Amino acid sequence: MALELGSGLSPVMKHTDRMVYSDLSFIALKQLKEKLGRGIYVVADGVNLPFKSGFFSHVICSEVLEHIPNDGQVMSEMARVMRLSGRLMITFPHRKAYYTFDDRFVSHLRRYELSEVKIKLEQSGFMINRIQKVLGPMDKATICLLIFLFMSFQKIHKKDIWGKNDFKPAKAVVWFFKLVNYFYTALAWLDARITPMSMSSVLLVYATLLKTDPGGKDRKNI
């Protein structure tokens, strides 16, 4: 059984009956269930997971830790609900120097240095197996530009024209943006590959649980 913590509407793992999707938002999980159909959906707080200790073989936590004040407690909880030799996969925004208005816009409390994440994982009982680059500085620059333009547009046009029912972009416009997105995705992939890890804006870490959290306590099973 695998757990995806903070799955929201866009989980990493999809289309499997052996997945438990967990999020603080009941509405998000309801919509996700309608979309995927399969799996188990549990509204839960990452700092106090309602699962039995040692229940999961895998835990996925993608772009979540930076939103939670007590991120260390979340790591301890992930360790508690995993069985020994269980596998963890986390992604996180990298480089504190990159923290700026776009992070605040999406409610990031922090960005991380890799050394900081390593220490937190080791303290929770994990051993890092592999570190992988996900996004490079080009993506960070692009997001900053897009959010700046969005915020500027909202200041100029205070009415929410995007919420109007009669707003329907032409098919040609939709296809144009799809093509641009494909092109940008390819560039972002190349940027992540050629960028040194020290400059990556998002990192992926695979880790194995070597010891359980000594402070963990059994809680209600799902």
Can you give a write-up of this model?
The chain has helices at residues 26-36, 71-81, 101-105, 114-123, 137-156, 171-194, and strands at residues 2-5, 19-23, 40-43, 56-62, 82-93, 126-135, 202-209. The chain has a seven-stranded mixed beta sheet, sandwiched between helices. The chain has a single domain, classed as Vaccinia Virus protein VP39 (Rossmann fold). It has six helices and seven strands. The radius of gyration is 19 Å and the shape is globular. With 222 residues, it is of the alpha/beta class. The protein starts with a strand and ends in a 13-residue tail after the last strand. Mean pLDDT is 86; it is low at 216-221. Helix 2 links the parallel strand 4 and strand 5 (82-93).
Write the layout of secondary structure elements.
Elements: E1 2-5, E2 19-23, H1 26-36, E3 40-43, E4 56-62, H2 71-81, E5 82-93, H3 101-105, H4 114-123, E6 126-135, H5 137-156, H6 171-194, E7 202-209
Parallel strand pairs: 1-2, 1-4, 2-3, 4-5
Antiparallel strand pairs: 5-7, 6-7
Which strand order does the major sheet show? 3-2-1-4-5-7-6
User: Can you identify the CATH superfamily?
Assistant: Vaccinia Virus protein VP39
Could you say how many structural domains there are in total?
1
Number of helices: 6
